[in-house]
C-alpha cells in the first residue's frame, strides 16, 4: 500500500509535526518527504513527518504480516521551540531508546483506554507526550531539563507500575529487581512512588491483595485452597497475608470466598509494610 500527501492535502494549511512510529509487528513501512532521506522504519523505529511538505509512505510485509503504524501530531508552535535542531532530527530515523519506547507505550495505552479522559488528565497526558517527543528528538537544554523532571519521571513510573502488575505474582519482585530491569537505582524507584504519596512496597502489596481477592471472589465455594491463592498472588508468609487481607478488605479470605461484600476502607494501606 502506498499513501501520498500531495497538493490536495497540503491545501489544508496544516503545519503540524508528526512522529510516525512503528510500535511493532513483522511488517514495516518506508517514508519519504521532500528534502529528507528515504527512511525505512521496522518495528520499534520511527521518523518525523512534516504536514506542510509533500511525501509518501510505502507499507510492506510478507503475506499475513500486518504493518503497524502510529502517527502522533504535535502543533509546530509547541514542539519546534523545544527541539535543538528539528531538521537534523528529521533527516534520520528515530531509533529505539527509553524516551521513544515510553512515548509509544503511553500512546498505545491512550488508544486502548475504554473511557474518555477527564480534562485534567487530557492536559497531563498531552504534556507527557510532548516531553517524550522532546527527548526523542533532542531537546534544547531547558526543554530537556523540564522533560526529564516532569515527563520522563511520570512515564517511567507508569511503565514500572505496568510491569509490576504483570509480575505481581512473582515472589522475588522487589525494588532492586525493578531497578535492575530499568537500569536505574533503587533509590530513584522509591522516589518515583514517594512523589505520588505512596511507596513501592504499598503499591506491590495492593496489587497482590487485589489479585488474591479477585481469585477468591471469583471461585466462591469449592475453589482452590486459600493457601494456594496466597502463594500464587506473590505472598510467601501466610500469617502476613491473612492480616493484610483483613485490614485491606474488612474480612477474611474465607469471607471473600463466601461472597461477603467489602467492608474495609479502600485507601487504608499507606501504613502497611512488608515484614
Brief sketch in words of this structure:
With about 280 residues, the protein is an alpha+beta fold. Helices cover about 50% and strands about 10% of the residues.
Task: Characterise the protein shown here.
With 275 residues, the protein is α+β, with helices and mostly antiparallel strands. The protein folds into 2 domains: 2-167, Sandwich (Jelly Rolls); 170-270, Homeodomain-like (Arc Repressor Mutant, subunit A), CATH 1.10.10.60. It has 12 helices and 7 strands. It has helices at residues 7-10, 76-79, 86-91, 98-112, 119-137, 141-167, 175-182, 186-194, 200-219, 226-232, 238-249, 253-257, and strands at 2-5, 17-21, 28-33, 39-41, 46-50, 55-60, 70-74. The strands form 2 sheets. The protein has a 4-stranded antiparallel β-sheet with strand order 1-6-3-4. Strands 5-2-7 form a 3-stranded antiparallel β-sheet. Strand 3 (28-33) and strand 4 form a beta hairpin. Helix 5 (119-137) packs across helix 6. The chain is elongated and about 70 Å long. The relative contact order is 0.08. The model is unreliable at 263-275 (pLDDT under 50). Keywords: DNA-binding, Transcription, Transcription regulation. Residues 158-259 form the HTH araC/xylS-type domain. InterPro entries: AraC_XylS_family_regulators (IPR050204), Homeodomain-like_sf (IPR009057), HTH_AraC (IPR018060), Tscrpt_reg_AraC-type_HTH (IPR020449).
Amino acid at each position: 500500500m502506498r499513501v501520498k500527501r500531495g497538493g490536495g492535502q497540503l491545501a489544508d494549511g496544516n503545519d503540524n509535526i508528526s512522529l510516525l512510529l512503528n510500535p511493532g509487528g513483522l511488517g514495516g513501512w518506508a517514508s519519504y518527504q521532500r528534502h529528507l532521506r528515504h527512511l525505512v522504519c521496522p518495528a520499534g523505529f520511527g521518523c518525523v513527518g512534516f504536514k506542510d511538505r509533500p511525501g509518501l509512505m510505502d507499507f510492506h510485509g510478507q503475506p499475513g504480516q500486518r504493518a503497524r503504524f502510529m502517527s502522533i501530531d504535535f502543533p509546530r508552535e509547541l514542539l519546534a521551540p523545544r527541539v535543538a535542531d528539528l531538521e537534523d532530527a528529521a533527516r534520520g530515523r528515530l531509533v529505539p531508546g527509553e524516551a521513544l519506547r515510553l512515548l509509544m507505550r503511553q500512546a498505545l495505552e491512550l488508544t486502548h483506554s475504554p473511557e474518555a479522559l477527564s480534562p485534567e488528565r487530557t492536559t497531563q497526558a498531552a504534556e507527557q507526550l510532548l516531553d517524550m517527543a522532546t527527548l526523542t528528538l533532542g531537546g534544547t537544554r531547558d526543554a530537556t531539563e523540564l522533560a526529564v523532571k516532569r515527563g520522563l519521571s511520570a512515564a517511567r513510573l507508569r511503565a514500572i507500575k505496568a510491569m509490576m502488575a504483570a509480575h505481581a505474582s512473582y515472589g522475588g519482585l522487589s525494588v532492586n529487581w525493578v531497578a535492575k530491569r530499568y537500569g536505574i537505582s533503587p533509590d530513584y524507584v522509591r522516589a518515583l512512588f514517594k512523589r505520588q504519596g505512596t511507596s513501592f512496597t504499598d503499591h506491590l502489596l495492593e496489587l497482590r491483595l487485589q489479585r488474591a481477592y479477585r481469585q477468591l471472589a471469583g471461585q466462591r465455594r469449592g475453589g482452590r485452597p486459600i493457601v494456594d491463592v496466597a502463594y500464587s498472588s506473590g505472598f510467601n508468609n501466610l500469617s502476613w497475608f491473612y492480616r493484610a487481607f483483613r485490614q485491606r478488605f474488612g474480612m477474611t479470605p474465607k469471607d471473600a470466598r463466601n461472597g461477603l461484600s467489602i467492608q474495609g476502607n479502600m485507601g487504608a494501606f499507606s501504613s502497611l509494610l512488608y515484614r
